[in-house]
Amino acid sequence: MELVVWNAARRLAVLVVCALALVSVPFVRDARIGVVPAASGGLALLLLGVALLPLLRASRLLREARRPPRVPSPAMVYRASSAAEDRDPEERLATQQAAVALMLLALAGALTIVAAAAR
Questions:
Q1: What is the rounded CA–CA span in Å between residue 94 and residue 55?
Q2: What does the alpha-carbon distance between residue 66 and residue 84 come to, in Å, rounded to a whole number?
Q3: DSSP class per residue in 46-58
Q4: Helices and strands, counts by H and E, the chain
Q5: Closest Cα partner for 101 from 49, 64, 60?
Q6: Could you report the per-residue pLDDT of 38-62, keeping only the tens digit for each?
Q7: Is the CB of residue 56 less than 8 Å from the CB of residue 105?
Q8: What's 34's DSSP letter?
Q9: Distance between CA atoms of 115 and 65, rounded to whole angstroms?
Q10: Fewest 10 Å CB contacts: which of 45, 60, 90, 97?
Q11: For residues 63 and 6, is the Cβ–Cβ distance under 8 A?
Q12: What's the number of CA atoms in the CB half-sphere (13 Å) around residue 100?
């Protein structure tokens, strides 16, 4: 589940960056920006920047959760199953961070649409 949420947030980040780039081209070319498009576009850019922090944190946590567990010494092989590390808290925190990034990116995408429509 954590990979699904993280992957969705990552793909939405790419879509929002592309949408912001496409929406900003007419504004830059005309050099005239209205109040509503400027405010919503600026807020979308700010939300995109803020959303990258939890997205990067989630990817770091997922990398840590996916690294192979330590191999027990040969004398402790019979206890290997009981000494296995629990990765659930790291994965849960990664899912939470990715969900926060997904929410912020969805808001940034909505504001990008408002900026484009207000033009």
A1: 9
A2: 14
A3: HHHHHHHHHHHHH
A4: 3, 0
A5: 49
A6: 888 889 999 999 999 999 999 998 8
A7: no
A8: -
A9: 39
A10: 60
A11: no
A12: 16
Residue with structure tokens 């926060």? 100
Give me the amino acid identity at 30: D
Structural contact between residues 20 and 114, judged by C-beta atoms closer than 8 angstroms: no
What is the C-alpha separation between 98 and 95, in angstroms, rounded? 5
Q: For residue 117, what are its two tokens?
A: 């429509």
Question: Exposure pattern of 69-78 as b/e (b: 16+ CB <10 Å)?
Answer: eeeeeeeeee
- Residue 114 makes CB contacts below 8 A (sequence gap 6+) with 36, 37, 40
- The pair of structure tokens assigned to 65 is 């959760």
The CA–CA distances, whole Å, from 63 to 49, 58, 67, 70, 99 equal 22, 9, 6, 15, 17
Which pLDDT belongs to residue 83? 52
Q: Tokens 């850019």 identify what position?
A: 45
Q: pLDDT digits over 88-114, tens only?
A: 778 888 889 999 999 999 999 999 999
